[in-house]
Every structure is written in structure tokens, then in C-alpha cells.
Amino acid sequence: MKNIILTIVFLFAGISCEAQFNYLNSTEVFDGIKFNNVSLGDIMIASGDLTKMKAFFGSDTQERPNNTAPFLAKFIINNDISFGFEDETDTGNNYDLTYIRVKNSSVIVNVKGLSVKIGDHKSKFRDFIFNTYKEDNSFNFTDKDTGSISLSFKIDKDDKVSEIKYISF
Fold first, then answer.
1. What is the pLDDT of residues 94-153, one digit of tens each?
2. Which contiguous run of DSSP H or E holds residue 168?
């Protein structure tokens, strides 16, 4: 009897967790997520190289190193968008993308056929799952294979996109 109850509990927990995300396959992640028409895959390949990031996001893009993090890190920033890269090898030669934060409405983010910017109404998300878990109030997209990538569109009290961020775990 205990096994049946545990099986039912795990089944409902799995369904509940599955219902909170909009899943993406690997092509949708690396080629389909875009920031001002630059794919997530291209940003990852750039590995925090300032010259490449300037080519993608403009000459006002700057680098700010961070030597106080647990690993070597650098931030690539401009007035519109910021990126975080970490080098877990501490060699300074192997930077991985860890986050992206969109700062204003001049950045258009593409995912699953949507083009969204800060200030857009949540109705743009049509039939995608809206997450209200712990008052998160966001549309979350994650990679189905590992769950290690999250693209989140936070919705404010006026039903507008107030924050767009990407996190890689």
C-alpha cells in the first residue's frame, strides 16, 4: 500500500513540476533564443571575448573583470544588456556564459516564435505556461534535456514584462 501511495505522490509531483515550465529542445535553445538577433549559441561560443561581443552588441560594450568571485569571472556590459561569464578552470582561457540580463526595451528577445521586450504585455505569450509558484509571476523557458538553462520573463502587476534574464546552472 505504501508503494502505491508513494508512486502516486511521485507521479503528481512530476506532473506538477513539468507543468511549471515551457521546455525547449537543444536547437530551440542554442539557435532559437536570440538577443537582438544574436543567437545564444553565438554568445556562448564568443566565451566573453570583448571584440566578438562588441561586434554583436555595439562599440559601447565594455568588459569589467571580477577577481573576487569563487572562479575567475568577467562581465560584459552596455546600456542595454549585461552578460556574466565564469572560468571554473581559473586559467582565464575558458569562460562560460552564466547569465544575461536585459536592461531595457531596446533589446528584443526571441524564443519559440515570440519576439518580446521589456514593457510588452503578457498576452504576447499566448498559450505558454504562466508560472505563479511563490509569486514568481513569470514565463519560464528551460532546456528539456538537462534543465540547466532558464530564460525568464517576469510579469509585473500591470501584466507587462518587467524583467528578462537568462541563467545557466
1. 999 999 999 999 999 999 999 999 999 999 998 899 887 667 799 999 999 999 999 999
2. strand 161-168
**8 A C-beta contact, residue 125 and residue 137:** no
Q: How many helices (H) and strands (E) does the chain have?
A: 4, 12
Nearest to 152 by CA among 46, 22, 49: 22
Give the separation between CA 27 and CA 15, rounded to whole angstroms: 24
CA 20 vs CA 14, 23, 35, 125, 137: distances in Å: 10, 10, 24, 14, 11
Strand, helix or coil at 98?
Answer: strand
pTM of the model: 0.84
What's the CA gap between 109 and 132, in Å, rounded? 22
- Predicted local distance difference test score (pLDDT) of residue 24: 96
- C-alpha torsion sign, points 107, 84, 123, 110: positive
Q: What is the mean pLDDT of the chain?
A: 87
Question: What residue type is 23 in one-letter code?
Answer: Y
Strands 34-35 and 109-111: antiparallel
Query: What is the DSSP code string of 141-156?
Result: EEETTTS-EEEEEEE-
Cα separation, 24 vs 143, in Å, equals 5
